[in-house]
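Supplementary Data S3. Sequence and structure tokens for construct A.
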Amino acid sequence: MANAKPRLLLVDDDPSLLRLLTLRLEGEGYQVVSADCAETALTILGKQSFDVVLSDLRMPGLDGMSLFDEIAKRYQGLPVVLMTAHGSIPEAVAATQRGVFGFLTKPLNNAELRDILQQAVHQSVPEQADWRDEIVSRSPLMAALLEQAYRVAQRDVSVLITGASGTGKELLAKAIHKASPRADKHFVAINCGALPEHLLESELFGHSKGAFTGAVSEHGGLFREADGGTLFLDEIGDMPVALQVKLLRALQERQIRPVGSSKSMPINVRVLSATHRDLQQAMADGSFREDLYYRLNVVNLQLPGLEQRPEDIPLLARHVLALSAERHNVKVTRFADDALQTLATAKWPGNVRQLVNVIEQCVALTHSPVIGQALVEQALSQNASYWPTLTDARDQFERQYLVRVLKMTEGNVTRAAELAGRNRTDFYKLLKKHELSAAQVAAADEELE
């Protein structure tokens, strides 16, 4: 998961003020990186992602406005707040007219500083914007991740997306591309574990005619296809070590040499990569190069598993059902309450990909406009990547039972305990075990289903 603390770059040529403000801002919950001049700040911005920049206006060399101008050109959407001991109304007006987010006068007022930074960090990244319209979520974990992904998209840095299989790493990569200045160019993806080494090399870098048996014509390769845009290297952890060396050289030199050619060609490509493997362990056992890891992992975004975002399961299930029904021209409209509850409480080791497979199977087999619990359970049991343990199955049934008995009694715990044949104390312990509350079930059926 992306770290939820906002990242702030603090720029001031006064060392004592830097230390004082760093302590104050860290106490307010920010991750603070400091720079003593604008030139250093720009170097840091080229390597790291931030949510807001707080800078002095008057500094030797590049001043605060010059720093802002560079940030506006290179990192669109990154808010900048300026501070000055020489503040005046004309300066503040001029700064805000040019796009500076805010202007503060020293000595800083704590309340004003807090308010303007909060506004800057939470300035609108539209929740359902076009750049992320394929990602269906209302999870706070995903909201934090997507906000960071949007910020990172504006910087032309390499991003490593990590997470378990089926969490949607390619969808996130596409969203980053669509939010970036490269959005009008190609997004090209390849699975690095799907091809043998010699074919993967040819696919990435291209080949000249006659470079090997079967090379009857020249092939441009994916780097050239993605020129000006984004190349997504999925399952980068499965790339053979020998090819890792050639990839590193291409990224360092910003040029490629097709297989069988003696000429190198310049490239302008942003590389996003993804893996479900533990690359730290892969580096330790020698199957992944450390220098390539640090070249690819300028920013790391970690996708949570579906079990970490349970509030998304009903939303995703309904979304996939609608798409599948339309694609197959089947008149199926919804899940029965207990069917949706079964989906919501499953473990989903295969994550979103497994959820999609289960729902596709349900749509294919249903004879009714409403998909029932039995069909969902059948699809779950036949899905190769999922089989609950006896304990998991028992817990799943127990939670479903509690939800249903609370619905029947409209949240009346005394009556629900009587129907369940338990005393109130035991019943409350069961609710606590499954992180349920009577009021929640009664007032928010849709989210619990």
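Construct B, processed identically:
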Amino acid sequence: MTTTTTILEAVGVPESVGRAIPDAATRETIGYAPIHTVADLDDAVAAARAAQPAWAALGHAERSRILNAIADDIEANSEELAVLLSREQGKPLNGPNARFEVGACALWTRTAADTPIEPEVVFEAGESRAEVHYDPLGVVGAIGPWNWPMMITVWQIAPSLRMGNTVVVKPSEYTPLSVLALAEIYNRHLPDGVLTVISGDREVGAAIAAHPDLDKIMFTGSTATGRRIVEASAGSLARLTLELGGNDAGIILPGTDIEAIAENLFWGIFINTGQTCAALKRLYVHDSQYEQVVEALAAMARTMPLGNGLDEGNVLGPLQNEKQFDIVSALVDDARENGARIVAGGSAAPEHGPLFYQTTVVADISDGARLVDEEQFGPVIPVIRYSDVDDAVRRANASTQGLGGSVWSQDVEAATAVARRVQAGTVWINQHGAINPHVPFGGIKASGYGQEFGVAGLKAVSAPKVIQR
């Protein structure tokens, strides 16, 4: 079995030519990532363009076989990949974190391989017949984030490869080693040029967005960057899938059994230490149960193990980088200074390391506060009172973003009726953020457009062709 050191040796570069990548928890250097340039990007795109016809010609069955072999290899190296991911990104090995993410990489790779996509007969009458076929687009440029670097990269590359495209990937500057390690596993099984990782800075990301020889761009990240990608891609008219920021609202309906939902509610908020686009970011609770919910969350926040991710007992980790730590700190400080009640946490936790922040529950806060209106992307939840369900829905929908939302109640029929009114790409009932590789996922409003996963995700990286007779 390949060891983590061997994977690092395979993907890293010497200090003299690379960029130091720190351990998220300790800030000690893990290794050195390549510093690729726009010229390297151009070479990668040219190689991908040259490799694409032969890759497409293999056909669905052979590409699916290769992807399943890749999934096997990910599983065979899962512990080493998880340790590297935990160190670079910060998420603990246990809980819904590093081992979970690596397992998801194998699962999403297999699902992309095994999901059938057949020509669709859309019209048939007598001798007339129209079918829709799905052909490769060509070359896909994928730009990934730092919060779930391996898993989201797989969301981008596995469907693209399955449909006969070739792919050039740019990981976040914060987490390149994890993506390089994942690609190293993939490339054991792929022909040259089919998948290339370009480990560069924002200049390289901007060049992907504007590249004239890319047929599709997939991006997960901030809304501001997504808008720049839309503008930059206008010249090439590359197809776009954009999974952008979220400020997901949850609504707890009156009469809900709080004890029954507490664990799902906590992890809907604090999965990956809150650093998840589709985590629950604002929680609306009826007056009748407000204090009960606040205290239930605070009790879990005070006792949930926080610390270095390599410690098997921890399930919450650090903020991944200094910029995000500063954002979280500023939002909590602003809430405190404007009269909000800090029920749990509320400050840094330097005893664990430089970028650790206490798991924080904030009460007596409302819409208009920065912590409510802005995406915190960290281990903090503002809990907001409401007295009328219609008003709670209105406030939940007031955000410019619309990635996810949730409704909580044992009355599933009532919860479903409210969920139909919440403006989001996905609305969960009695859970938040749960994803399924067969179920389409994507946002609305300023949270982006385009869907991933399942048949919808395969179609999104394909060129539909109508054959009519």
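Residues 248-429 form a domain with the Aldehyde Dehydrogenase; Chain A, domain 2 fold (CATH 3.40.309.10). The longest strand covers residues 128-136.
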